[in-house]
Amino acid sequence: MDKHFDVIIIGAGPGGIYSAYELMKLRPDLSIAVFEAGNPLDKRHCPIDGDKVKTCIGCPTCSIMSGFGGAGAFSDGKYNITNDFGGTLYEHIGRANATKLMEYVDEINMTHGGEGTRLYSTSGSDFKKRCIQNHLKLLDASVRHLGTDKNYVVLENLYREMKDHISFFFRTPVEHISLVDGGFRVDFEGGSATCAKCVVSVGRSGSKWMQQVSEELNIPTKSDRVDLGVRVELPAVVFEDITKELYEGKIVYRTQKFEDNVRTFCMNPRGAVVNENTNGIITVNGHSYEDPALQTENTNFALLVSKHFSEPFKNSNEYGESIARLSNMLGGGVIVQRFGDLERGRRSNEKRIEEGTVRPTLKATPGDLSLVLPKRILDGIIEMIHALDRIAPGTANDDTLLYGVEVKFYNMEVDVDENLETEYPGLYVIGDGSGVTHSLSHASASGIYVARRIAM
User: Fold this and answer.
1) What is the pTM of this model?
2) How far apart are CA 434 and CA 413, in angstroms?
3) pLDDT per position as a tens digit, 175-184
4) Which of 183, 349, 381, 438 is most buried, most CB within 10 Å of its CB?
5) CB–CB of 36/12 below 8 Å?
């Protein structure tokens, strides 16, 4: 293939999808192509079934992390409408504009299968006062919860609307971007294509590729952060008062020992813990569902500690990967440990977990997280669990399960201007692959924003 398009979008995650959708609406005269390393939505199937296949088998392309919908396709579909977390898009385009774009994304979701889902809000919540009284901070946000099932429907409907107007190339990872007269050329196995405008939206799983492209084109970047921690699983009733009112509480605690910030992330009421494969490394995440028939008796959420590195160290993601590899080496994948065992300084075993009151939703290897996570991070997590126990009694029970490790890799932040455009006119970098956004809502909003700039 050697074809010219007006716009090429690299990556069919949230940023790429909403950018393509908005361009299709505003400029139907443009020829648009989307190149995606993974599969179409209907061919994204993880072989792990908990029965015959219990752990990751290293598929050529990970259906959880890549394909139409990106890593968010099988997430629990939480769209947080806020500038308090989820990225720094507002620093480029302004707070009011960022909020309006996130609200517009919500409108699109509601007209493509998300109607009837609830928009939660922390505004006026009594829970905020309870947090303050216990040295915790509840971040402000409106949260639209689609659920993994409804999120899938929204993506199906968006693809159905776009597929006859936009050229999609699946299982076609782009290898290089180069400058040519009048625009850019993208190279992939078996060919290349050229375009006047190029939008890069490769998500977190494309972090290493984005670094390579930035080096090849001499685009300045900076990288200094990685989030490390565990995923907590406990009976849903423990957090039921919170999740019924807020669905997800973004709670931050400043530890007494080291004054590190520990935060809750990705809370999944009556959800399931799942594996993730990032660059061949198995980590842990969580899903939840809108359909009551798919719900479990447990709630899970991450507890993460952000580590910011200073010069001369520049490889924050490699630091996170090294810790995740250690977990994989010791446990063959994800490790699970009872909180009581962790505090007693002993590894968990199958017998104690089976006798516990929390039935795990993920098949993981019983082990000892203290052999994996740095002491400072683990001490912060233990402090946070006891702090949460004061607002949700039962959090610090012996049988509470901790899965490790959970790592949130942050792409190096690519140097882009107020239009999310690099120093090369017409080359935009959006979504989590830019390092500017860290959430579904912010990534989607960045796609809308760039589409409107191109359509002008």
Assistant:
1) 0.78
2) 6
3) 999 999 989 9
4) 381
5) yes
